[in-house]
Amino acid sequence: MYAVIESGGKQYRVEEGGTLKVESLRAEPGASVTLDRVLLVSDGAQVTVGAPHVSGASVHATVLGHGRGKKVIVFKYKPKAHYRRKQGHRQNFTQLRIDKISRT
Fold first, then answer.
1. In this predicted structure, what is the pLDDT of residue 32?
2. SS3 for the chain, per residue?
3. Phi, psi of 49 (to 5 degrees)
4. Cα separation, 40 vs 50, whole angstroms
């Protein structure tokens, strides 16, 4: 069984027992979270597609921890103008373990 969920403006394909890195959520490590913005649910034989969300469907997950992604370098440069700007960015994330996918 798998589902497609929306979190932080991005879409993710999740399966029970899998782990996932999403945009930072306000939850303590070890806490349980419910993601109710489910776009698609499939159990192998039957596929349910929402318009835009599947009503009654939810994904239950456990927060494993928080972290920061790899550094991305932003470098702006204009030739012959002595203009150079270098900036780094590390995005915060929350790692989740998918416990259960349910639909009503």
1. 96
2. CEEEEEECCEEEEEECCCEEEEECCCCCCCCEEEECCEEEEECCCCEEECCCCCCCCEEEEEEEEEEECCCEEEEEEECCCCEEEEEEECCEEEEEEEEEEECC
3. -110, 130
4. 6
Q: How far apart are CA 18 and CA 62, in angstroms?
A: 11
Structural domain total, the chain: 1
The span from the first CA to the last CA of the chain, in angstroms, equals 14
The token pair at 75 is 């470098």
Bridge partners, 78 (sequence order): 83
Its pTM surpasses 0.70: yes
Residue 29, CA distances (Å) to 11, 59, 65, 67 in order: 22, 17, 5, 11
Domain range enclosing 38:
2-102
Q: What percent of the chain has pLDDT over 70?
A: 100
Give the pLDDT score at 104. Answer: 73
